Automatic annotation (TrEMBL):
SMART domains in the record: ZnMc (SM00235)
Example of a GO cellular component annotation carried by this entry: extracellular matrix
Taxonomic superkingdom: Bacteria
Ranges of Polar residues composition bias in the record: 26-37
Gene3D superfamilies according to UniProt: Collagenase (Catalytic Domain) (3.40.390.10)
Protein name, UniProt field: Uncharacterized protein
Molecular function as annotated in GO: metalloendopeptidase activity; zinc ion binding
GO biological processes: proteolysis
Region (Disordered): 26-46
PROSITE patterns: PROKAR_LIPOPROTEIN (PS51257)
Coiled-coil regions listed in the entry: none
SUPFAM superfamilies: Metalloproteases ('zincins'), catalytic domain, RuvA domain 2-like
Signal peptide start-end: 1-21
Length: 477
């Protein structure tokens, strides 16, 4: 009973497909899932036997919040869009998948934040928490600090928005921390980075923390709101439940395959349910492996700027591992690029692309040497990646609606930066047709430090959208 009871009591916005129970919905009063006096709440469960789960069985365990357009499966997994969203979730996620630190994916792409957003994850805390508000504020701060200590990211509490934090959408902050419905069957739930703005909520069911300690079991041992919110903020950052991985060897807790591992499997991870063959407890602290994972996906870009090196290639034309900025960006590109980008745009051998996708689905690449060990990649493939990123690469989308070059298109960004760092005053002024003052300011500024991002160029006086658009047109028209 403890196993079924706990499955509902932590986490967040995950696409969990199956977790507990048997093939058909249960109404056994001893199952805490259906026992209103237990901390779990609403909904039935099934065992993931590998057999198709019917829509009726799936729908029977979905709980819909009466005050928000969110329904929750497996106690804490939000689904947006009402009945239509539930049906889409079932057919796109559950039926599709039935035919430590792990990062969530959508459409084969990692769901992570842009470099700018990750440094301003602003939130408010709803006044509706009343006398419990101070407890929630403290728990959120402790949880945020745990992730901030090891990843290049920043949560920012904006108390000025607390009075409006219960709104369906508060555009002044990135997400809201608000109360749950009274009958919600979870301790807390959250969201993933690709959630719609109106769905970016961390909901905390404060009364359920007291109820979680009722009974004869030792569930409440080491359980704290800060621990639960550490887990929740892991989901906010894009990380999945560790126990969905096959290494957990726990069919009760399998969810889906829409993730890729970031680290080796970690049974004690902050993202691992203790009752799902976990070796940690409900204190839910970051392990050494969790620390490796968040540092990998949210690296300190001061260490790895989009800079260049005086020497990037060996005499034989191979990419040098000791040029840290270049090595890092090649590895980061391979870990995140879509199959189409690797195949069509970077022009890798199809067999190399298949090997990359298969390998990174188990564990990400960390060094150029990792890439060079790939049978169909080796030195020549890494050089092809270098040429794509720094010499002649293009992207499916290179500018926004205003013609501003997209920083996310690294080949274009690198080429613009190289031109800004090396072109003469006359080339900038006459050939690229920049305002003379913009050209002079670029030449003066780069004497102290080469430009390493488009945002650095943007900070130069007279270099704004029009100037960057001219640089792009000069290089690509």
């Amino acid at each position: 009973m403890l196993r079924r009871k706990l499955i509902l009591l932590s986490c967040s916005a995950l696409f969990i497909l199956s977790a507990c129970g048997d093939d058909t919905p249960t109404t056994d009063a001893t199952n805490e899932v259906n026992n209103p006096s237990g901390p779990g709440g609403k909904g039935d469960h099934w065992v993931n036997t590998g057999e198709p789960v019917s829509y009726e069985d799936f729908r029977a365990q979905v709980y819909c919040e009466p005050d928000h357009d969110i329904c929750v499966t497996e106690g804490d997994i939000p689904i947006a869009g009402g009945e239509a969203g539930i049906q889409a979730f079932y057919y796109e996620r559950i039926r599709a998948s039935q035919s430590a630190l792990s990062v969530n994916q959508s459409g084969g792409e990692d769901t992570l934040y842009t470099r700018a957003r990750r440094l301003d994850l602003s939130y408010c805390v709803d006044d509706a928490f009343g006398e419990d508000k101070a407890l929630v504020i403290t728990a959120m701060r402790e949880a945020a600090e745990a992730w901030e200590a090891h990843g290049h990211l920043k949560f920012r509490y904006d108390a000025s928005q607390d009075a409006d934090c219960g709104m369906d959408l508060n555009a002044a902050v990135f997400f809201t921390v608000t109360t749950s419905p009274a009958d919600a069957g979870y301790l807390a739930r959250a969201f993933f980075p690709d959630s719609q703005a109106a769905d970016r909520q961390v909901r905390v069911n404060v009364p359920s923390f007291a109820a979680a300690g009722d009974g004869d079991d030792d569930f409440a041992k080491n359980l704290t709101m800060a621990g639960i919110l550490r887990h929740e903020l892991g989901h906010v950052l894009g990380f999945r439940h560790e126990h969905t991985r096959p290494e957990a060897n726990d069919y009760w807790c399998f969810e889906d395959d829409n993730y890729r591992p970031v680290t080796e499997y970690d049974s004690a991870s902050v993202m691992h349910y203790p009752q799902c063959s976990g070796t940690g407890d409900w204190s839910l602290v970051l392990t050494d492996i969790d620390v490796q994972g968040v540092a990998f996906f949210y690296p300190d870009f001061e260490r790895y700027p989009m800079g260049r090196c005086d020497v990037e290639l060996s005499d034989e034309g191979d990419v040098l591992e000791d040029c840290a900025p270049v090595a890092h960006h090649i590895v980061e590109f391979v870990n995140n690029a879509s199959e189409d980008t690797l195949d069509h745009w970077a022009g890798l051998d199809t067999r190399a692309v298949d090997d990359i996708l298969a390998t990174r689905s188990r564990s990400p690449f960390h060094t150029l040497e990792d890439l060079k060990q790939m049978h169909y990649l080796k030195e020549h493939g890494v050089r092809k990646l270098y040429d794509y990123l720094y010499v002649d690469g293009r992207c499916a989308a290179e500018t926004d609606a205003n013609g501003l070059p997209l920083a996310s298109c690294w080949p274009v960004s690198h080429r613009i930066l190289e031109f800004a760092n090396t072109a003469s005053l006359e080339e900038l002024d006459v050939a690229a047709r920049l305002d003379r003052r913009a050209a002079e300011n670029i030449v003066a500024a780069r004497q102290n430090h080469p430009f390493e991002s488009l945002s650095e160029l943007w900070l130069i006086n007279y270099v704004k959208t029009n100037a960057l658009n001219k640089l792009y047109n000069h290089l690509y028209d």
